[in-house]
């Protein structure tokens, strides 16, 4: 690829090319920085996930132990209401994580409770049903307390008699609101949200809660829930939200003893722009610094250019301007004969002498070529002249035909050959010899047709349009079509030719030529089932229009109206 750059521009280009790798290194560094920040952010959140998972596991183990211990207390087994209530009240006072403790009968109806009324039906709670079936510790899903609507998770433990039959169920509930206090003591990164999700995809807890308090107790985003369905105990994933924000999620599933389904999932989320914004800010700062360096470097290059090349280049350019003006006799006196610029000046002088010799040789060749072109032009004019003479000869032969049956054919052929001969005459009269002016040609054609009638019987022919150049290949078919239309109007339009009025218009629309012809004659009847045969003139018009790849439209209500649309040659 050729590059035409001045020395000054070349200096600047060299500086930019030299600094370009710095941009590449900067981009690579920012990618590494982004990866590092992302990994550190994930590690920080994974630690939080570990802490919360251990807290939840500890709370579950603590509640299970508490219920197991209570199941062995004689007062609990014997269900002494007063003694049991004192024990339950003492536990709730010492352990604020436990929201309530109940004892139900084997049907799930509350017998003794620290906070619920006796007789409350808990039989439909999943953890109560599971304990009744398995006679083992069970963990329930998220529910809202019937007391004050608090978010809680239920736990159940069987009370068995000596025979191993269930005589009741110990039920406790974990107060999820306690997580607010627990998380407030942990350093949570900015823009991070912590979630507790039950086994049915219901949001149990969210921190900070003020961000989306309305999400508590409702299903989480289906996109997130679908990711949590994979059989992984721990993992991370990315999701593009409906608002086109890229969010990063991490989770830990916690399983109840002897179950294959997690009873709770601890999850965090944070927007990826939390990482990218920090990286982008550094990138902008370093980019501005590099731009400052580029500006200073370009300024330094400008000074070096003036010091090292300015005067020498000016001297060389002065010599070149002298040579451009054709002054080859001026002796070359380079200011620095042993430098590269001095050698360039000597080389330019030698080159100028060679160019001068070549110019003289080219001038001789140009004169020879001009003579050949003149000869070619004369030959072309002679060829068109001969063609015109041949057409005139054909015309004369047709005029001499005396047969009455051929009279109509003879007249039509004479007119057609005249229109072709006129085109060749116009071609050799102009210099281009490739195109003719269609407007001028139609004027000549009108004059030719008018000469066929006496001055007092000439029809009124109105031509509208402007000069429009067309090729020879288009001019001849167009001339024949117009000749047929005008001749047809003269023959059939009016009994008295002076009453005939013909309108012709030509116009260029985009890449098409539009010719509109109309007269005030009676029109003609198009071929039908009764008269299917078309006249020779109509057939000729349609054939020529097809040859030009044009379209014809006819109207016969008020005289004859024909619209011809032809694509112009490029």
Describe the structure.
A hairpin with a 5-residue loop joins strand 16 (551-555) and strand 17 (561-567). The chain contains twelve helices and 17 strands. The chain is of the alpha+beta class and 570 residues long. The chain is elongated and about 140 Å long. The strands form four sheets. The chain has a five-stranded antiparallel sheet with strand order 2-1-5-4-3, with helices on both faces. Among the domains are: 72-178, PAS domain (Beta-Lactamase, 2-Layer Sandwich), CATH 3.30.450; 401-567, Histidine kinase-like ATPase, C-terminal domain (Heat Shock Protein 90), CATH 3.30.565.
CATH H level of the domain at 401-567: which superfamily?
A: Histidine kinase-like ATPase, C-terminal domain
Biggest sheet strand order reads 2-1-5-4-3
Class per helix and strand makeup: alpha+beta
Largest sheet: 5 strands, antiparallel
Order of H and E elements: HHHEEHEEEHEEHEEEHHHEHEEHEEHEE
The beta-strand count equals 17
CATH fold naming of the domain at 401-567: Heat Shock Protein 90
Determine and state the CATH class of the domain at 401-567: Alpha Beta
Number of alpha- plus pi-helical segments: 12
Mean of pLDDT:
78
List its traits.
Heat Shock Protein 90; 5-stranded antiparallel β-sheet; 12 helices; single chain; alpha+beta; 17 strands; 570 residues; Beta-Lactamase
